[in-house]
Design a protein that fits this description.
The complex is a heterodimer of chains A (248) and B (208).
Chain A lengths: L1 E14 L5 E7 L3 E7 L18 E8 L6 E10 L8 H17 L7 H14 L6 H14 L23 E3 L4 E3 L10 E3 L2 H12 L12 H19 L12
Parallel strand pairs in A: 3-5
Antiparallel strand pairs in A: 1-2, 1-4, 2-3, 4-5, 6-7, 6-8
Chain B lengths: L1 H8 L5 H11 L6 H13 L2 H17 L1 E2 L6 E2 L5 H4 L4 E8 L2 H10 L4 E5 L17 H11 L3 E4 L5 H13 L6 E4 L15 H9 L5
Parallel strand pairs in B: 3-4, 3-5, 5-6
Antiparallel strand pairs in B: 1-2
Helix pairs in contact in B: 1-2, 2-3
Classes of the chains: A alpha+beta (248), B alpha/beta (208).
Amino acid sequence: MSTEKSEAIVIRQADFSESSRVVTLFTREFGKISCLAKGAKRLRNAFEGSLDLLSECRIVFIRKQSAGLDLLTEAQLIQRFHPASKSLLHLYGGYYIAELLNSLTEEHDPHPELYASTANALVSLSSPQSPVAAIFRFELTILHEIGQLPDFRTCTICHSTISLDDQSRFWVSESGLICSRCGHSDYQQSAIESGTVAVILKLIESDIAKLDRLVISDRQSKGIRRILNSIIASILGRRPKTAALLKF
Amino acid sequence: MPARQTDAAQHPFGAAVGRLVEEFGRLPGIGRKTAERLANHILSCSKADAVALADAIRQVKESIRRCNVCFNLTEQEVCSICRDPRRDRQIVCVVEQPKDVSALEAAAAFQGTYHVLGGRIAPLEGVGPEDLTIGQLVRRVKQDGVTELIMATNPTLEGDGTALFVTNLLEDLPVQVTRLARGIATGSVLEFANKEMLADAMRGRQQF
C-alpha cells in the first residue's frame, strides 16, 4: 500500500454505508480510481464537502495492491462545478462528461491531457456561452485519448486524402469516413457534409481559446452529434444514459 | 438465496437465530458483531418484549403510507402537517426525503407546508423527473395558488439541478421560487471555513 496525492474530478458517487461513500474520481496522475471515502456523509469529515459530483479537488489516497477499493483519506476543494445559471443544457453537459469519463476510461490508466480537457470543458460549461463546442471538443478529445478517434482526413478504405469538396460519407460500422470513389451501397453509411467535417477538424485542431469564436450551425451541430453518438454507442455497445438529455 | 440459507443454517444456535442475525445485519450501520449482539438480546428478553418489537415493525409497514397531498409519511390519507389549519398552504417547502421534513420540523422555523419529491434528479443513476413527484407538485402549485416554493433539496450538484429543473418548469406560473440559504455555520470560525462556504456566504449576505 502506498499513499498518493493527485488532483481529481469527482465523476460518480454511491452510498456504501450509513456514513461512507464509494467515490469514482478521474485524477490527473492516475486516471480513473475508485475510493472508499469513510465518513463522507457526515457533516464533519476529512473531505470538506469537496466530493460533490464534478467538483475538482486535491486528494490523498492509499492505493491498494489488491483489487479492492483505494482508501480516500483527504480531499480539499479546488473548485465546484457551477453550471451557467438557469441552463439545464450546461448542467446536462456536465453529467454527460462525467458519464463518458466513467465508461470510456480504465482504472489507473492516466490521461493528463484528458484531465486538462475535462477541466477546460467544465469551465466552459460554467460560462453563459453555448456549451455545444465545449462538449464536442471534449468528446473528440476523449476519443483521441482512448485511441478511437476516426481519421477525418483520409478514406478508411483506400487511405487517400479526402478533399473537403468530396461528397464523403460516414461508415457507421467502421466509424470512419469513406470517399466518394469507395462508397458502396452495402455499407451502413450516412452522408456527411464537407462543412461538418471542416468544423470537426477545427474542433480537434484549434486552440481552446479560439473555440469561443467557432460558429457551428444547427445543421452542422446535428451532423456532428449524429456521428459522435454513433462512434460512442459502437464503443460502449449502448447509448450513454445522459446522451438523450443533450438536445442539440 | 441458497448461500444465505446455508449461512443461517450453520449458526451454532440454529437456523432461526442465524436468520435473525442475517436480518439485523441488513440494517444500516449494523455489522455482523452488532447483529449477533442484537440477536442475543432478543433471545434473552421476554417473549412479550420480542413480540412487541415484531408487532411494531409489522404495524409500521402496514399502516404507514404517503400523504395524498405532500407525499410525506403518515398513518392517514393526509398527514398532520397538511391537516393543520395554522399552516400556511401558500408557502411550500420542497424536500427530497421524508427525513428532511423531520429535520426541518425539529428546527421549528417554518410554518408553511411541505412537498416530498422522493429523491432528486440523478441522470447518472437513471433517476429522471418522471420518477419523482414533480408532476404532482406542479398540479399543487396550480390548484392551491401557491405563492412561494422554497427549494430545500440538498446543496449538491444534483440537488441544485433538481431545483433548477423545477424552477424552469414553473417559470410561467405566478409563484416565487426560492432556494435555502447556504454558507458558514453558526458558531464556526471564518478561518476554518473552506472557500466555497465563504463564497456562498458572501453571495447570500443579508442586510444587518
